[in-house]
Amino acid sequence: MNTSDLSPASQIDRARFDWFALAVIALVWLEFISRLRLEWSINPQYAYGWTVPLLAAYIFWRRSESAPNATRPALRSLAIVVILGGALMLPPIRLIQEANPDWRLMSWAMALAAAGISFALLLLTGGWPWVRHFAFPILFFLVAVPWPTQFEQAFIQGLMRADTAINVEVLNVIGIPAVQLGNVIEIGTGYVGIDEACTGVRSLQATFMVSLFFGELYEFNVVRRIILVVAGAAIAFFCNLVRTFLLVWIGADKGEEAIKKWHDPAGLSILLVCLAALWLLSIWLRRKNATSRATTNGRFSNFRLPRVPLFLLLASVLAAEGGTQWWYRSHENSASRLPAWNVNWPTKADAYQNVPVADSAQELLRYNEGGGAMWKSADAHQWGLYFFRWFPGQTAGLFIKNHRPDICLPASGMTQTSGARAKLFQINGVPLPVREYTFDDRGIPLHVYYCYWDGSVPDPKSTNSENWTASGRLQSVREGKRDVGTQMLEIVAWGYEDDAAAEAAVRAQLQKIVSPG
Questions:
Q1: Closest CA to 430 of 507, 340, 346, 506
Q2: What is the largest CA-CA distance in the chain?
Q3: Comparing 162-171, 238-247, 359-368, 383-392, which segment has the lowest mean pLDDT?
Q4: In the list 102, 115, 237, 342, which could disulfide-bond 398, CB 3.0-4.6 Å?
Q5: Among 214, 45, 31, 89, which Cα is nearest to 140's?
Q6: Phi and psi, residue 500, nearest 5°
Q7: pTM for this structure?
Q8: CB crowding 146-179: b at 16 or more within 10 Å, else e
């Protein structure tokens, strides 16, 4: 029986059911987008993610105009199992994400669940022809999911070191003395850092997304799409080399202040040049492209979805959101939380001076309050202090975990000489879980004490409150602990040869700096 055999009332019901189907599918994807929006908003590296849903929707609509004729699904039972599995995954993933919004493994888990559900619904609706036809817009959405942290850090650090090494060689060839110190280039007028927030790194990931979109927009075959992606990566890296060279050349000629002045304009200009080059390459490949997508007589408007999977998905999304809010609110009402503490900046110390936080660091950390300072103690040792505070709901872990001393200081040219040593300081009645690091700063020993504090009562069996292992993250879920405000303190002491002497001096300084309340 086809649609024309139905009574008018049945046809109206069918039409309403189709809109209901679209609404449920959209709700699943909106739940996924709502979990990624935080990373898109606060991490400049993934700011392009906001455009991906719109582009994916456009690609899906464009492909719907040439949808192939629907066929009877050969694996209907498999599709039902996939939908059921995806629906069952949504509540626990949502529960874990609430306590760990920066855990990218959960973002990928939800992405795969949403994609699997979408593929299964396409299989039920139009069979394998529809799965193949609409695979690209669904998979295209994955370019907006942040890369796994370890892979991203390894890739970015390697990219920055290669950028630095190549520029140092070029600078020396043209007569500008330059030395590589990690991800820093030392020139006669100072230091130029190749930080991970540089526009070149951002443009590499954005270029990957744009390359895939242009390949679909111009209906390239597989070979030309691969050529476009590889060429886009090469263009992005070359543009970043040019950007770095320009900044170092300007710094060598006009000093460090000129670098700050030209940093953002150079980055924006290089990004625009990169995207323009990619577009011109796409046009050139389009002229040589011999294939295009054939149109069919399929009618996407004729799709029909069974009610049971749709109601199951709707119930799953509602249970995921409602259950998550109930779980954390019920635990927060009975949770034991420590009051926040304050920092009294040692403004009367010898040679005290405020240390401005670089714009790039502010953009990355997105703290609500804080700053830096340097001074000298009575025994003439140099000291440094950084303190930042994030208000509730700002997910400080998302900013901090990639900017700890063991990540940032080696990138600035220092050598780490010991692993982190976890300790618990009691300072003026305030328990501070800290980690001690030791570095070599161009021949001078450097002791760094780093404290991440989120209001939790320190575990007597572990002095490490900054536990981002899988077990630590799941423990936060079991305890119903989500972000209610975070503080980070980092105090640095130069010149102490003995670890015990450095720790005693740090404790003495903190007694003057940290106060409860």
A1: 340
A2: 94
A3: 359-368
A4: 102
A5: 214
A6: -65, -40
A7: 0.73
A8: beeeeebeeebbebbeebbeebbebbeeeebebe
